[in-house]
Design brief:
Distance between the termini: 85 Å
Largest sheet: 8 strands, antiparallel
Strand content: 25-35%
Structural class: alpha+beta
């Protein structure tokens, strides 16, 4: 069947995936409409689409507002809306609002969304079909007391999960009865904030499981197929990091049974469109698998399936929504080669994965055989705290798994993002791990490896590079770069102090020695650095100078990150601040490490706290960050629940306990 496709489609999402959808629409000759919030007014996806509509100031009144999305579709003449993933992609209210407005919802029917969008209901529904389940308490509307009662015959560890959520958010591992009440309280708070629904379920935690999911496609004519599996076992805090297709764990017999179970799951709710059925597989008993959930949308990791099967899943979604039959039958689905995806996040792994914010000052994305980058970045992109910190995906495909891993390693090495910290080096640590290389991995591997990971740190060479760039900026253009590579003459070489930007910064005292050279190239921000140890090409870029120093971003073959260069004036200011800090002792004030929202104030204002006690929790980039008392004493709290806070805002102050001598 070859029906008329849509002429215009609204993409109800943002970032890299909105651009990904727009590319397929363009290939099909369909015009795309982007939507955005005020924070995204200069985002790459807004510029990429043929038309863009401002929905509101914040996520709540833009990407999370079904009525605003549908009204934008009506106003622009879009005939369909693609919800993609995240935000309200699995919200039945969006599907209903589209239906009322005569807009085609590029997704499943309302029944499938209602059943599979509720983890409790979906588990009970699928269990009736005979699909294996892990033990747990999964009745609707259970309070904390009832959930605790439901676990009395279960053994620890257990896993708390939001019924309405996905993506690992709000999931908490509980190791003992003593932790259960507190973890339930936290899980409800996170679930309410992330999904607007604090309903929870609790289930037996399968130690060292493999996370394997199956991609399904279903049309409106009753045809349902699967396109093989993806392994998503490399996770941190239940959030996928690296995904691949196919899984090295499964035998052909288990693969076939799992595919059949996924198809039957889709058929049980008359599913339409692209969906994913997720399973837990025991690493010690790989022939056994347990249903986790069905995601009624496109998955973040869909590219690895596209690369191994040659099927454009977004095109299939659009054709299905337009009423066409599936373009292929189950027997025609052939998986070739191996594909691996790595998620690039704006975060600082060496600092506990603290989300990183700022402006992208320089961007280089890898290319080459078997390399694909799905990105929402451009030079000048603003990375804030309102959205998930994932900024891009790097996908590498090869004829076999070893080649795919090698290509991914090289691609990550070639990718450069300056202006915000990223997890690129961390991703390379993971794919170079011997157990990952052999496919011997489970969902606990990442957490096991983290304590032993050592990240690159700047050296005196990097400090010399950064100081030279700052010094160049203080000279007139005619004198800045000499034919001999900016050799300095004179009796006394200029000196700078260069600080690393870390929780415990290291300082380098740099004299601009004549043995080192920094030569500009024809490429913007690229330099050739030479000293007695050899020559290397580096990328250097400066932020705007400030009285306290100039931040210089460095990308070299053994370090990528930021350093702060202090000239004489900045050194004086720094020394004065250090003396003041020494006199003051432990800072009684706790400030916001990044902009965010207060999600909990754990103690009353004026109460006594002890050093290390969590007093306030803030949420940023969909992650919670506990702020703790720096010392024993009486706390004064300067914020309230749900309050928006800015970077470095004073959150709480602790007045120290009096000492015995009255000091």
């Amino acid at each position: 069947m070859n029906l008329q496709l849509f002429s215009k489609v609204l993409i109800a999402n943002r970032g890299e995936i909105a651009i990904r959808i727009a590319k397929t629409l363009h290939n099909l000759g369909i015009r795309s409409v982007a939507v955005y919030s005020k924070a995204d007014q200069d985002a790459a996806h807004v510029r990429f689409a043929q038309q863009a509509v401002l929905l509101g100031e914040t996520s709540a009144d833009s990407y999370l507002n079904p009525q605003a999305v549908v009204q934008a579709a009506v106003d622009t003449g879009a005939e369909a809306s693609h919800p993609v993933y995240g935000f309200i992609s699995e919200n039945v209210e969006l599907a209903r609002a589209c239906k009322r407005a005569g807009i085609t919802f590029i997704g499943p029917n309302e029944h499938a969304l209602e059943v599979m969008g509720d983890k409790i209901r979906s588990k009970n529904h699928v269990a009736k079909a005979g699909v294996p389940m892990v033990d747990g308490g999964s009745e609707p509307d259970l309070g904390d007391t009832q959930l605790i009662e439901a676990t009395k015959n279960m053994t620890f560890p257990m896993l708390i999960k939001p019924s309405a959520g996905g993506g690992g958010k709000g999931m908490h591992v509980v190791e003992s009865h003593g932790e259960l009440a507190g973890q339930l309280e936290t899980a409800r708070r996170v679930a309410k904030a992330a999904f607007g629904d604090d309903t929870l379920l609790i289930e037996q935690l399968v130690r060292a499981p493999r996370h394997i999911e199956v991609q399904v496609l279903a049309d409106t004519h009753g045809n349902v197929i699967h396109l093989g599996e993806r392994e998503c076992s490399l996770q941190r805090r239940h959030q996928k990091i690296i995904e691949e297709a196919p899984s090295v764990l499964l035998t052909e017999e288990t693969r076939a049974r799992m595919g059949e179970a996924a198809v039957e799951t889709a058929k049980s709710v008359n599913y339409v469109g692209a969906g994913t059925v997720e399973f837990l597989v025991s690493d010690t008993e790989p022939d056994k698998f347990y249903f986790m959930e069905m995601n009624t949308r496109l998955q973040v990791e869909h590219p690895v399936t596209e690369e191994t099967t040659g099927v454009d899943l977004v095109e299939e979604q659009i054709r299905i929504a337009a009423g066409e039959t599936l373009s292929l039958h189950q027997d025609a689905v052939v998986s070739q080669g191996h594909s691996i995806e790595a998620r690039v996040y704006a975060e600082t792994p060496a600092a506990g994965f603290m989300p990183s914010t700022g402006t992208v000052l320089h961007l280089t994305e890898p290319t080459g055989d078997g390399v694909r980058v799905d990105s929402g970045l451009r030079t000048g992109s603003e990375i804030g705290t309102e959205f998930d910190p994932m900024v891009a995906k790097v996908i590498a495909t090869g004829s076999n798994r070893a080649q795919a891993l090698a290509r991914l390693d090289q691609a990550l090495d070639e990718m450069t993002i300056l202006g915000v910290n990223t997890n690129l080096e961390y991703l390379q640590h993971l794919i170079r791990d011997p157990d990952v290389a052999t496919g011997d991995m489970d969902t606990t591997l990442v957490e096991q490896r983290l304590p032993g990971m050592v990240f690159d740190s700047p050296t005196p060479q990097h400090a010399q590079m950064a100081a030279r760039l700052v010094h160049h900026g203080t000279k007139s253009p005619s004198l800045a770069w000499n034919d001999d590579g900016f050799r300095l003459t004179g009796v006394v070489a200029p000196t700078y102090t260069v600080h690393t930007v870390e929780e415990e910064p290291e300082a380098f005292e740099v004299a601009l020695c004549t043995e080192a050279q920094l030569l500009p190239t024809d490429v913007d921000h690229e330099f050739v650095y030479h000293d007695e140890s050899g020559t290397q090409t580096v990328t250097l870029i400066s932020e705007a100078p400030k009285p306290e120093g100039t931040r210089i971003w460095v990308a070299s073959n053994n370090f990528t990150g930021v350093m702060s260069v202090l000239d004489h004036r900045a050194q004086v200011l720094h020394n004065l601040a250090s003396l003041e800090a020494e006199e003051r002792g432990v800072d009684p004030q706790v400030r916001a490490p990044l902009p965010g929202t207060v999600t909990a104030v754990h103690v009353p204002d004026g109460s006594h706290v002890t050093a290390g006690q969590t007093v306030v929790t803030i949420e940023a980039m969909k992650m919670e960050h506990p702020l703790k008392a720096p010392l024993d004493g009486t706390v004064t709290i300067h914020v309230a629940d749900a309050q928006q806070v800015r970077l470095d805002q004073n959150i709480l102050t602790v007045t120290a306990d009096d000492t015995e001598d009255g000091e």
